[in-house]
Structures are given as structure tokens and as C-alpha cells.
Design goal:
Pfam families: Amidohydro_3. InterPro entries: Amidohydro_3, Metal-dep_hydrolase_composite, Metal_Hydrolase. It is built from 17 helices and 24 strands. By secondary structure, it is an alpha/beta fold. Strands 7-16-17-18-19-20-21 form a 7-stranded parallel sheet. The radius of gyration is 23 Å and the shape is globular. The mean pLDDT is about 95.
């Protein structure tokens, strides 16, 4: 006989509910939901043989983490024919070349794809990317693509040939990630560096079976092990989304997936109202559902394609470009409103955020609940505090990424001069002004190895330490309580699900994790090393150290 009710016990419970009692020691779960919180002295009344008792001893319980912006499929499939060239393990150009040279043997048409960090040129000791000629020393027979964070890629000569990129090549004006650039030398020949072109390159893809296996393995490796139980997934492929649905039907999807259809990557804007013609989602919505649409209004700082209010250093009056016109935004807003979807727009630069906020306000505002418009990366760089007033006028939700403080926060001045020293991740200022902030990974190819660990993101909020070991505007550090809320209940609010997720309370989803240390009882530097021994997602145990489920 299956046991529908479970009691999860520990030393204490961090509920993330305001004004909650602090002496709770357990949680009674029925099906997918929390029935009530309990204390150990209540166990005699609860243990009547009809409930499963899960006693985790001196562990600490808290709600599962909510990662509202991730590219889970992308990070899961990086293990497929991808060579890890990330710093600090590969911290010199020769080390990168040696690692690429160790790729699995293949034929002339078999790509060698390297995964390198975002802002890789800043993290290599030479202070530059490997050149086309240096990649040619690894192979002139096989195409090589060194993907530095998804916005910049270095190609060898063979890869340029396969991709059809020569001196006569005319790139499209923009791709789904921003304006496209092919760098050229003084003679007009491609140097091998291309920007915002990864989706246009004929890179290898896994089969449907390989993709499903990669997603199942990767969700456990990159998310479940760190206690993430809900993911705002920026979709990659229709096949990947279908694989997630099949995993959910089989009871093997360890996190609730809230899917944002990448337009025009996964499908076109015109296809969005008819997404059911392209996807067959038959699993319960508690496990997986289409949440919204994701679009790019500009590119990335590493590619100098983020739209900013100043000029890039050594680039004349260039300030980046807005990727689509207002009429396209109007159509996207209408489609989302008519179909109960949430619009999420990538806007790295402050000019892109200002333009987007003004446009949304002119078009009637950002809506509410699950349909409230999100601006991705708003709050990462705010040289002008008035940008937040434009957010407010539009009614948008800012969605910053604390992990980027570590990843590239120190490099803003390299691209923007003194302008890049202003308003870097001003979380304390924004919280004190009344903004509700979330924390998310935006994990993609080239992310730091700890990017999907929410405790690493929380550590970033408190320590504000950079990749090179320096510190950024420590007066903007926030409290541990605030940082935990950014990754739980306040993250759930971005999805319009704070009534269902993000805290431990009766009636909410039973997304529960157990920690091997109490975050309130250890040094800040130890936060990023907290282990998650137990994960319950929607009432099912998906990770348990005692049961050997890893």
C-alpha cells in the first residue's frame, strides 16, 4: 500500500514566512502539498503507522530554491561533444589549446567545440582570446568553435569554411541573441571571432535519445544537488521541451519547469499562440507548463552589443543597438496578454531597459500576476538611478543575477570607462527603495561552475567578491535573510507563484530541502559550501543521502 502522507523531521525549519514561529521541527505532507508544520512532541499523535516518517536528525529544512532564469537544456547538453576549457583550470592560451587537442578523435567533418567562460579574454593570463591561427595549430582538418559564454565564439579556418564565412560573407543584422558581428582584419578577411552567431553555426546536436538522457542527468547534476526545485527555463529546442514532458510523465522530472518560449529561437512569435501544434504537454502543470515568451532587446557586454547610454571605450559613438522595433514589442505584448503568458525581455544595457520600460508604459503597462512583464538583467548595472523610476512607471519586474557580480562585475569599466563603475548590482539600494528582487543563475554555456548553486549566488549577495578576488561596492551588501528570500519566496513572486512556492506553509507545494549546515550559524565564506542532503519536489523525494538517491 502506498503511503500518501509523509512527515519530514529535522532540527529546525526555516519557513521563509514572515513572523513565523521559529521552533518548528518538521512538516506533514500529503500528496504534493504541505498539510501543516509540526514539532517533534507532536510525533506521538502523528506516527500511527499510516504515515512515512523521514527523520533527518540535525539537518535544517527550508523551501526548495526557485531559479527564475536558467537555460537548463543548454547546460545539460554541454556534456555532449563539448570540451571544457574554462578558467581557472585553463588559464592560459596554451592550456586551452592543449585541452582542445585532447578532444575525442573524429573525422574531417566532426566539430571540436570548446566551452569557455563568459569574458574569457579577461580571465586568461594573456588578456586576450585565442586566435584563429592558434586554433589552427590544434587542427586544420576539423572545424573548431571555442564558445566564450554564448555571445562570442572563436572559429578556426576550417570552421569558417564550413560555416561559409569568408571575406564576401554578409551576416544577418541580428540573431536571436543580439546584433551579429563578424570581425575582420585590415584586408577584410574574417579573424575567426564572431559575435551573437552561435545559433547560426552548424554545431553538432545530440539525438533525441541522447538529449533526453542529458537532460535527466544534467537536471540532477546542476540543479537538484543544490536544492533547486523550480526552474524558469528559457527554452532551447522543441525536442528538449518534449523530453522534459516525457520525464515528468515517468515521474523523473526533479524540478517544476516553467517554460519561456525563446522567440524567435525555439519558435517564431506567430507560432506562440499555437504552441500546442508543436508541443504535446500531457504532464500535470504542477510539473511543467508554458509560462511565457523570452525575447532579446539587445546583446551582451562581452560582445559590446548591450545597448547603453554611454559610448563603448575606443568605439567612437557606438552605444549598442536595440534589436527589435516597437511594433514587434507591441505584437508580443498582445500575444502574451491574449494567451495568458508572461513576457520576459533580455535587456542588458541601461538604454535597452529605459527604451523597453518607456515602450511598455506607452503600450498600457506590464500587467499583473503571472503575466507581469519581466526585464531580464535589470538591476545588474544601473549607472542612472532614474532607470528604476522607469521600471516603476511601466510596472515591470526587474530580474537581476547576483552570480554575475562574481562573473564579470569588475569588467564593466573595461568596456564603459568610468560609467561602468556606477550602480553595479545595487541590491541594498533597491531593496531599501521597496523593490522585490530575485536571484537566478542565467546558466548557459560558459557559466562559472558554481552558477547553478543558489548558495553561491547568496554568497555573492553578501560578499560581493569578484572573479579576481577584489570586492565591488560592499556598502550594497544585503543580509542573509534578504538573500534567502531573493532565491525562494521573492523568486516565486516573479513567476506569480508566491502563493504556491518559495516558503513552507500549509497548502503550499511540498518543495522541501534539507541542509547539512544552518546558514545562520556559519561564516559567510562557508555559505557556498553548504550541502543539500535531501530534496523533496512536489511531495516526492528526488534526492536523499540516506536512501542513496543522488
Amino acid at each position: 500500500m502506498s503511503i500518501e502522507e509523509k512527515v519530514v523531521l529535522a532540527r529546525r525549519v526555516i519557513t521563509m514566512e514572515r513572523d513565523a514561529a521559529t521552533d518548528w521541527e518538521g512538516i506533514l505532507v500529503r500528496g504534493e502539498r504541505i498539510v501543516r508544520l509540526v514539532r517533534r512532541r507532536d510525533l506521538a499523535d502523528l506516527d500511527d503507522g499510516t504515515r512515512e516518517i523521514i527523520d533527518l536528525g540535525d539537518r535544517v529544512l527550508m523551501p526548495g530554491f526557485v531559479d527564475v532564469h536558467a537555460h537548463a537544456e543548454v547546460v545539460c547538453r554541454t556534456a555532449y561533444r563539448t570540451v571544457d576549457c574554462r578558467a581557472p583550470e585553463c588559464d592560459t592560451v596554451p592550456a586551452v589549446l592543449d585541452t582542445l587537442a585532447g578532444a575525442e578523435p573524429g573525422g574531417r567533418s566532426d566539430w571540436i567545440v570548446g566551452q569557455a567562460n563568459l569574458f574569457f579574454d579577461r580571465k586568461l593570463k594573456e588578456g586576450r582570446l585565442p586566435t584563429r591561427g592558434e586554433l589552427d595549430t590544434v587542427s586544420r582538418e576539423r572545424p573548431i568553435a571555442l564558445r566564450a559564454g554564448g555571445h562570442i565564439t572563436v572559429l578556426n579556418t576550417r570552421a569558417l569554411e564550413v560555416a561559409g564565412i569568408d571575406r564576401t560573407f554578409v551576416p544577418p543584422t541580428h540573431s536571436i541573441t543580439g546584433p551579429v558581428t563578424v570581425e575582420r582584419d585590415a584586408h577584410g578577411d574574417p579573424t575567426g571571432i564572431v559575435k551573437e552567431m552561435d545559433v547560426l553555426l552548424p554545431l553538432p546536436s545530440p539525438s533525441a535519445t541522447e538529449l533526453a538522457e542529458a537532460i535527466e542527468d544534467g537536471l540532477g547534476r546542476y540543479f537538484t544537488r543544490y536544492g533547486v526545485t523550480t526552474i524558469g527555463e528559457i527554452s532551447e529546442t522543441v525536442g528538449g521541451l518534449q523530453a522534459m514532458n516525457e520525464l515528468a510523465l515517468a515521474g523523473r522530472l526533479p524540478a517544476s519547469m516553467r517554460i519561456y518560449l525563446w522567440v524567435p529561437g525555439t519558435m517564431s512569435l506567430e507560432q506562440v499562440p499555437h504552441w500546442r501544434d508543436h508541443l504535446s504537454f500531457t504532464a500535470p502543470e504542477s510539473a511543467i507548463r508554458i509560462q511565457g515568451v523570452k525575447m532579446f532587446s539587445d546583446g551582451g557586454f562581452s560582445a559590446r552589443s548591450a545597448a547603453v547610454n554611454c559610448c563603448y571605450k575606443d568605439a567612437g559613438d557606438f552605444r549598442g543597438n536595440i534589436a527589435f522595433p516597437k511594433y514587434f514589442l507591441r505584437r508580443a505584448l498582445r500575444i502574451c496578454q491574449d494567451n495568458g503568458l508572461q513576457l520576459a525581455v533580455h535587456a542588458n544595457g541601461d538604454r535597452a531597459q529605459d527604451w523597453l520600460s518607456r515602450s511598455v508604459a506607452e503600450l498600457g503597462g506590464a500587467g499583473g500576476g503571472r503575466q507581469r512583464v519581466r526585464i531580464e538583467h535589470a538591476g545588474n548595472l544601473m549607472p542612472n538611478p532614474q532607470t528604476a523610476e522607469l521600471w516603476a512607471a511601466a510596472g515591470i519586474v526587474p530580474v537581476p543575477q547576483p552570480v554575475f557580480l562574481y562573473t564579470f562585475g569588475e569588467y564593466f569599466p573595461d568596456y564603459l570607462g568610468e560609467y561602468g563603475l556606477k550602480g553595479r548590482f545595487p541590491f541594498r539600494t533597491l531593496l531599501e527603495a521597496g523593490w522585490r528582487l530575485s536571484g537566478s543563475s542565467d546558466v548557459w554555456i560558459g557559466s562559472e561552475r558554481e552558477a547553478t548553486n543558489p548558495f553561491f549566488s547568496i554568497w555573492c549577495c553578501l560578499m560581493r567578491q569578484t572573479y579576481s578576488g577584489g570586492f565591488i561596492d560592499i556598502d550594497e551588501a544585503i543580509t542573509l535573510e534578504q538573500a534567502l528570500r531573493m532565491h525562494t519566496i521573492d523568486a516565486a513572486s516573479v513567476l506569480g507563484e508566491e502563493d504556491q512556492k518559495g516558503s513552507l506553509a500549509p497548502g503550499k507545494m511540498a518543495d522541501i530541502i534539507a541542509l547539512d549546515h544552518d546558514p545562520f550559524e556559519i561564516d559567510v565564506d562557508a555559505l557556498r559550501g553548504i550541502g543539500v542532503d535531501f530534496v523533496m519536489a512536489r511531495g516526492s523525494v528526488v534526492r536523499s543521502k540516506t536512501a542513496g538517491r543522488f
